[in-house]
Write a structure and sequence with these properties.
single chain; 88 residues; two-stranded antiparallel ribbon; 1 helix; 34% strand
Length: 88
């Protein structure tokens, strides 16, 4: 589970993912394409009373949300070990 620790929201396209063995950093959406992470991420929305998806634009499955929002925690499925989320 990850959360946006800063004030303000961040588009997934500007969030980075670093592989800590080789110190290679990709954007979150590039990391999805490289099979480091699953697209989409999931979060629980208390106003809508249910789980929602947040994913990269143009990468299946299509989602309507593409931003990590302040105040929400996101479940992320990783396929690689030693990954670090890098927020701007």
């Amino acid at each position: 589970m990850v959360a946006q620790p800063h004030s303000g929201d961040h588009a997934l396209a500007v969030v980075g993912v670093r592989e800590d063995r080789d110190y290679l950093t990709l954007s979150l959406c590039e990391a999805v394409s490289a099979a480091w992470l699953q697209n989409p991420l999931y979060y629980y929305d208390t106003e809508r009373m249910g789980y929602r998806q947040c994913g990269c634009e143009g990468i299946a499955p299509p989602t309507t949300e593409h931003t990590l929002r302040t105040g929400f925690g996101y479940w992320v499925c990783t396929y690689e070990d030693y990954l670090t989320l890098v927020l701007p």
